[in-house]
Design goal:
The complex is a heterotrimer of chains A (about 375), B (about 240) and C (about 300). By secondary structure, chain A is an alpha/beta fold. In chain A, about 40% of the residues lie in helices and about 15% in strands. Chain A has a 7-stranded mixed sheet with strand order 7-6-8-9-10-13-14, with helices on one face. Chain A has a 5-stranded parallel sheet with strand order 2-1-3-4-5, sandwiched between helices. Chain B has 2 domains: about 130 residues, P-loop containing nucleotide triphosphate hydrolases (Rossmann fold); about 70 residues, no CATH class. Chain B is built from 10 helices and 10 strands. The chains are: A alpha/beta (about 375), B alpha/beta (about 240), C mainly alpha (about 300).
């Protein structure tokens, strides 16, 4: 192992934060208080790579509208809410016009509140909790199909597929892993029945007790829904299949990861909701190609494309405002409609901060992805965010 | 050249000076005893000589080598070992295991079987307790095991720290008898003892330590005759 | 009844994994009086070894021995680089150092390998199950029970039959006196670390077979569970660590199976409360540690 790169990274980061930064008056200063290390790095690092790709592209073309270059200032929030708030405050004091916060709601709330009181628009890289803007205020925006929206699409799909009795597996540890509660609401509204539900702890890896319970359900579940992700989801599905339970499983975007596709037979037929699908000729396919050209490998998560989307949203807002003023940008974001991102079109107009985006349902087939459907669900079906 | 030469040894526990200035010499074939009250610095000196405690000042030479600052395992491999105060046998291990660990330095030389027979002869009680856990032995048996364990490393110089402590008089006899037999086997002994009478009976020479300093030295006869020793340790006016 | 037996198998399998982990912590603790919180990172290193071996198309038969050897070397290197320079320092310094080692390794994994989990494809036969009467027993479940038994058996043999093993047991009771036997302190400590590395390697393989991926932070939770199991069993006591592991597995599975759904979210809290109750009555753990003298 060579130690040079880590020193280089550390050195570069230190320099970047220590040198006085003089932005040209017309630069769009984007302050990113996101997690380059710690438990959220798995999401924020890929998102940051996608952001960088969009920024390089825009700056190479002369800036937004040929006018406003993007100046990204990164501070590692180390997956720690307190550090995130400190970093956010520093970035705001430093003149950021827009703030980017981590992929999780908890650190984003603290940082978002700083942005809220400074009148700066804040975007979480990829948090999907529909509560986040409610918890912070009108300056907080998310950048991902909300949990309730994803669950609506999967519940409707389950009913349309003829499933009647569902089992849901929830972890109370995070709001994201309680997504199946939204699924339950929609599934029951549409006439299905939840015949069993269980809890797990994130990282527990042992699902033998739950699996034994599922086996003994009466009536048996004909569909299983969970928002568990790594390492829990792979462990769960292996133990589930090993116990001879063949009921189909529906997951959510947390399992949109190479691990799921490397699981082999046990993952065959798993369906999950996520932010996009790289159909031939789609913007996502184009993004993946650009990413590969820049980084030498395919993105291993949708979060990179989501990071790219975030910058595209900012680009659209600055174009609309024709300004890099905080207030003007914030006003413009609230009016954005059908911004073309890599994963979907994105609309903030008329929302409370959770954008209207399409949800893709993807099925794992022979270790590859197959699109089941792509849609924005009927707004009347979407359950209200639960606090 | 003497087998062991200790010169100006000083040892501290943090700010407390336990040994201030101890110098002593042990010639090959001798039994030398170190006398002194509790806390005089006798045990501390032995532990510093064997390398368990760092010497703050002074030198320790064994068999012509300066061993000051060497690790105990290295010093033991040179042929000097310590049977510590309180026996310190490995209680959850069997008698046999205790002895096999004692012979750790001899395994490569392949003479553990011979050593084993020798120990069984010297300590017949251990032969019958072979598979027993060492912690279940009586005090006297444990002391015999501790000495036997030290002998398994074939020492030329054995440091014995209070071997008779807490033992019944009849067992004390046995232990001193044993020390005599060790001398006959050619093992040199440096003996720290509270049991001044018996120690001086068996020893050739002795040192008296007080307050971390050697205050008196001489042949066993001379020490027995010394008024100071008689007053302090032999309970005679 | 069938469910009960099935849950017992579940408890044995989970408990076995905990037992292996706790045993690894206990071996080092017994000799050095230190909980090595970087033990979990050995699991991670084992996982990355498997990941890179698969990537480099190392023949399948070699991967497991290779991963175990790397795990042992990693543990030994940890001792040599991080802990040996602190020999003689107090337990608190060692504990903090082990946290630092753990943190540094995590950041290195994140920066030099990937912040994302890396998939480790597991052969399908390992994810299967076989049927005994009415019971479904997972292959990985049985493997973890078998591996626990095998490792406990091998370790027992090693500790009872070899000189180095006896020296480790002796050092656990009284380190300075062990040195008086001419036994090199560094060798005993290194051996204890290598054994803990081997145990972590085996648990790492089982852990990864279950999760199918390796992640920079994956070591934290297992080491925490192992710590609880080791405390429960009586820290530093090897038999205690194994029993503590099985006990913890039984508590977790038992609560998962028996608690009504509304109370389920409090499962971990209840499990830890039970552990605390045990410790209230037996502060020294189920098998109180032998009083020992450290280096």
């Amino acid at each position: 192992m060579k130690l040079v790169p880590i020193y280089a990274i550390a050195g570069a980061l230190t320099l970047a934060t220590m040198l006085p930064q003089q932005a040209a008056a017309d630069d769009l200063v984007v302050g990113a208080a996101i997690s380059l290390t710690g438990g959220l790095a798995y999401a924020d690092v890929p998102a940051q790579k996608g952001m960088q790709l969009a920024i390089d592209e825009i700056n190479a073309a002369g800036g937004i509208g040929g006018k406003y270059k993007i100046d990204l200032r990164l501070k590692d929030s180390r997956s720690d809410p307190a550090q995130t708030s400190i970093a956010a405050q520093e970035l705001i004091d430093d003149g950021a016009s827009v703030l980017v916060t981590p992929c999780d709601a908890d650190p984003s709330i603290g940082a978002g509140q700083m942005a809220q009181s400074a009148g700066v628009a804040a975007f979480s890289t990829c948090a999907s909790s529909p509560n986040l803007p409610l918890a912070v205020g009108d300056h907080m925006f998310t950048n991902f199909p909300g949990d309730n929206v994803q669950a609506t699409v999967s519940a409707k799909y389950a009913i349309d597929s003829g499933y009647k009795n569902a089992y849901i597996l929830i972890s109370p540890d995070t709001s994201y892993t309680q997504l199946p509660n939204y699924f339950k609401t929609v599934f029951e509204t549409l006439g299905g029945k939840v015949v069993g539900e269980d809890n797990f702890s994130i990282g527990q890896q042992d699902f033998s007790a739950q699996v034994t319970k599922i086996k003994s359900l009466e009536p048996a579940a004909d569909v299983i829904m969970t928002a568990a992700y790594e390492p829990d989801f792979p462990a769960f599905i292996k133990q589930l299949r090993a116990a001879g339970i063949t009921a189909p499983v529906i997951g959510s975007d947390g399992i949109d990861s190479p691990t799921t596709f490397a699981l082999g037979d046990v993952a065959e037929g798993v369906v999950f909701s996520t932010a996009g699908f790289a159909a031939p000729g789609s913007p996502l396919e184009a993004f993946n190609a650009k990413y590969k050209a820049a980084n030498g490998e395919n993105p291993d998560t949708i979060f990179s494309a989501i990071g790219y989307d975030l910058i595209k949203v900012l680009e659209a807002a600055v174009l609309k405002a024709d300004s890099v003023d905080r207030e003007a940008i914030w006003q413009a974001v609230r009016e954005l409609e059908n911004v073309q991102g890599a994963t979907s079109t994105i609309t903030y107009k008329g929302t409370n901060g959770v954008p209207l985006r399409q949800v893709s349902l993807i099925k794992v087939v022979k270790g590859d992805r197959e699109l089941v459907l792509q849609e924005a669900p009927d707004a009347a079906l979407i359950p209200a965010p639960s606090l | 050249m003497s087998l062991l030469e200790v010169d100006g040894l000083a040892v501290s526990y943090g700010p407390i000076k336990a040994v201030r200035d101890v110098s002593l010499v042990v010639e090959a074939g001798e039994i030398v005893t170190v006398l002194g009250a509790n806390g005089a610095g006798k045990s501390t000196s032995l532990q510093a000589i064997i390398g368990l405690l760092p010497a703050q000042q002074g030198r320790v030479r064994f068999d012509g080598h300066d061993v000051t600052g060497e690790s105990p395992e290295r010093i033991v491999r040179r042929g000097m070992t310590l049977t510590p105060e309180g026996r310190r046998i490995f209680a959850p291990l069997t008698v046999e295991e205790n002895l096999r660990i004692g012979a750790a330095t001899q395994v490569r030389r392949g003479n553990t079987a011979e050593l084993w027979d020798q120990m069984m002869e010297l300590f017949p009680i251990l032969a019958s307790r072979r598979r027993q856990l060492a912690g279940t032995l009586s005090g006297g048996e444990q002391q015999q095991l501790a000495i036997a364990r030290s002998l398994m490393s074939r020492p030329r110089l054995l440091l014995l720290d209070e071997p008779s402590l807490g033992l019944a008089p009849i067992v004390v006899e046995l232990i001193f008898d044993l020390i005599g037999r060790l001398r006959d086997l050619g093992i040199t002994i440096l003996l720290v003892e509270q049991n001044v009478h018996q120690a001086l009976d068996i020893a050739d020479r002795g040192y008296v330590v007080s307050g971390g300093t050697v205050v008196l030295e001489g042949t066993a006869e001379a020490l027995k005759a010394s008024a100071d020793v008689q007053k302090a340790y032999l309970g005679q006016a | 009844m069938e469910i009960f037996v099935q849950q017992c198998v579940n408890a044995l399998s989970l408990g076995g994994t905990y037992a292996l982990l706790a045993l690894g912590l206990a071996v080092v603790f017994s000799v050095l009086g230190m909980i090595n919180f970087a033990h979990g990172e050995i699991l991670t290193i084992t996982g990355y070894t498997v990941f890179f071996s698969l990537m480099l198309a190392v023949p399948a038969v070699l991967i497991i021995p290779l991963a175990l050897i790397v795990a042992m070397l990693a543990a030994a290197a940890m001792e040599r680089v991080a802990f040996r320079p602190l020999r003689g320092a107090g337990p608190t310094s060692l504990l903090i150092t082990s946290f630092a080692v753990s943190g540094i390794l995590q950041v290195l994994f994140q920066n030099l390998i990937s912040a994302r989990p890396r998939p480790v494809p597991i052969p399908d036969f390992l994810t299967g199950a076989f049927t005994v009467g009415p019971f479904h027993i997972g292959v990985i479940q049985s493997l973890s029970i078998l591996a626990t038994l095998a490792m406990v058996g091998l370790l027992t043999l090693f500790l009872k039959r070899t000189l180095l093993g006896m020296a480790i047991r002796a050092a656990a009771v009284d380190f300075p006196t062990t040195r008086l036997m001419g036994i090199r302190a560094n060798r005993v400590i290194l051996a204890a670390f290598a054994i803990s590395g081997l145990l972590a390697g085996v648990s790492g393989l089982l852990w990864i077979a279950q999760r199918g991926s390796v992640d920079p932070l994956m070591g934290f939770l297992p080491v925490l569970k192992a710590f609880i199991a080791a405390i429960l069993g009586g820290i530093g006591n090897l038999t205690g660590a194994v029993i503590g592991g099985f006990f913890l597995g039984a508590i977790e599975i038992g609560l998962q199976a028996a608690l009504p759904e509304p109370v389920q979210p409090f499962r971990d809290a209840i499990a830890l409360t039970l552990v605390v109750v045990v410790l209230l009555y037996r502060p020294q753990g189920l098998f109180g540690a032998v009083h020992s003298v450290r280096p």
